[in-house]
Amino acid sequence: GKCITASMQQLRCGIPCCYMLILFFMFDSKHQQQKLTVKRHHEWLRDNVYKNMNKRFEKLEKLVKDALDPLDKKLSIVQTRVDAFEHIGQKLSEKLDPIGQNMSAVQTRLDALDSIDQKLPAVHTMLGALDPIDMKLL
Asked: Nearest 5 degrees, angle CA 84-CA 88-CA 92?
């Protein structure tokens, strides 16, 4: 504050205050210029580099989208076919369930026939024993 009001006074180092003010303003203006340069650099980056990057990303995004669209369509077709196969499988399962239940009944009957088959030799033996009696009866 005193330097500004008493511009001709000298500092302890012997330099007049007015020279210090000139140096300060020179430095300050250089600093302002640097800030402006940095600001301009950021603006240039924003206007050129960032916009170019955004354009490239948009192009890349479009390329990826264009490449994936046919795959999405094919995937949709595959999904439709899978759904159709699942539907067919469900219908087959509905048709085969009664057949499976019938097969179980058939197996029970076959088991009963096997049991009868196993008893047939004994019946034949008994019939064979009855043959001489039959002959005598005639």
From this structure: 170
